[in-house]
């Protein structure tokens, strides 16, 4: 059984990776927040500790999963953001190179500027803020310095449930649970949802097929925040109880002050070319996400 060290595995993505890989691989998973019994404590910004823990496990792969993803937090905590999202990636590259093992790095659609309708792997990154820039710098370092790597770019993450999800789906569900029956949803932000389990499973396909390089990895279907919210309400059976009001991003300008791309839709061009695209349509994935993480949802 091959061994994988997963660093920064305490969030919604790490949970999916753990579930998708645990039966076929020997795992050591760590995070600064040990919120699961299968997590060991590690602040991967501490290079010496990071190196010691990975080296002692003697893995066949190193997965670097963790990052700060709250755009507002990143704008307000710039040094901490680059320490977490960029410098730790440099550490991961050095460790993987020294151990002569492949590195998997998770990047984001947030590295683009939003001027195009869709982005494939050949498009130029133009980050708008410190979150996107910190992740892109990680990408560049991996591509330039890693001897054996896979970079997978995700879009709007779905998964993790109430405990792990700090993103769009859980924010909508929490509003409904708190009694809100009229939701304000932006109609000027376009993207591609990414179910954490589909993403982890497709990473497994790349690992096992021994492909390397940079890959967009998002669910099928080009959509926007308003359409995702509408589908969510429908799947929850609340179309007659919850109203959605379309608003522009200006409506939330105080709460969400960090600049965001108008469009961050990715297409999985390279996965399609290799016939390795296992990412399902976002509507199918969203339905699965709700069944997996909100099986007893009711209001």
Structure classification: alpha/beta
Q: Which stretches of 5+ consecutive residues score pLDDT under 50? A: none
Helix content: 40-55%
- The backbone outline, from C-alpha atoms, is globular
Integer average pLDDT: 97
| CATH superfamily heading | NAD(P)-binding Rossmann-like Domain
CATH class (first level) name: Alpha Beta
Oligomer: single chain
Q: Number of domains in the coordinates?
A: 1
Work out the number of β strands: 13
DSSP strand (E) fraction?
Answer: 15-25%
Largest sheet: 7 strands, parallel
Architecture, according to CATH?
A: 3-Layer(aba) Sandwich
Give, in spatial order, the strands making up the sheet with the most strands.
Answer: 3-2-1-4-5-6-11
What's a concise summary of this model?
This protein has 299 residues and is an alpha/beta fold. It is built from 11 helices and 13 strands.
Describe the secondary structure blueprint for this structure:
Elements: E1 3-7, H1 12-21, E2 26-31, E3 39-41, H2 47-57, E4 61-64, H3 71-76, H4 78-99, E5 103-108, H5 130-145, E6 149-154, E7 156-158, H6 161-164, H7 168-177, E8 182-186, E9 190-191, E10 193-195, H8 196-209, E11 213-216, E12 223-224, H9 225-235, E13 243-247, H10 269-273, H11 282-293
Parallel strand pairs: 1-2, 1-4, 2-3, 4-5, 5-6, 6-11, 7-10, 8-13
Antiparallel strand pairs: 9-12
Helix pairs in contact: 1-8, 2-4, 4-5, 9-11
